[in-house]
Structure to design on (143 residues):
């Protein structure tokens, strides 16, 4: 089986432009930035995506992302950021090791929303919210 590229970066077996790391999480520059300063935040131990990452570890990833995002306006001159995560190939995930994208946004960048809203059926919205709420309230589904 091929080695996981982000596990290799986490172990320092392949190089990356690392901006922060501790025993559990790491942040480094995306090799193919969507905008200037595009950063990826990963857990060092392998999880595939949002579906399997352990919650305490996920909170550490998000907290590091927040700390980085907060300094971006001052350091990079951006005016906002997008946080982005793809879970599953159907959702455009290409690297199958959990990563959170931090994409700095600039007034004249070229990024566009990848989706537009679909038409709304109020009954369907209610039904979906009900099904999700019901399932979420059942035992063992929160972890
Ligand atoms: P995703 O489509 O969400 O799986 O995004 C994967 C991201 O990883 C892309 O933005 C790639 O540019 C980035 N990437 C792939 N290989 C490397 C690498 N060796 N170092 C830094 N970023 C990488
Ligand atoms: Zn991995």
């Amino acid at each position: 089986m091929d080695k996981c590229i982000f596990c290799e970066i986490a172990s320092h077996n392949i190089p990356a432009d690392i901006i922060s790391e501790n025993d559990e999480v790491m942040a480094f520059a995306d090799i193919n930035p969507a905008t200037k300063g595009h950063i990826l935040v990963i857990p060092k131990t392998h999880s595939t995506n949002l579906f399997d990452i352990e919650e305490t570890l996920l909170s550490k990833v998000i907290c590091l992302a927040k700390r980085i995002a907060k300094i971006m306006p001052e350091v990079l001159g951006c005016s906002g950021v997008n946080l982005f995560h793809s879970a599953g190939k159907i959702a455009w995930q290409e690297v199958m090791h959990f990563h959170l994208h931090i994409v700095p946004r600039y007034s004249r960048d070229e990024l566009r929303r990848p989706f537009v809203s679909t038409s709304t059926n109020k009954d369907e919205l209610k039904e979906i919210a009900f099904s999700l709420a019901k399932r979420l309230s059942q035992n063992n589904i929160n972890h």
About this structure: The CA atoms of residues 27 and 112 lie 25 Å apart.
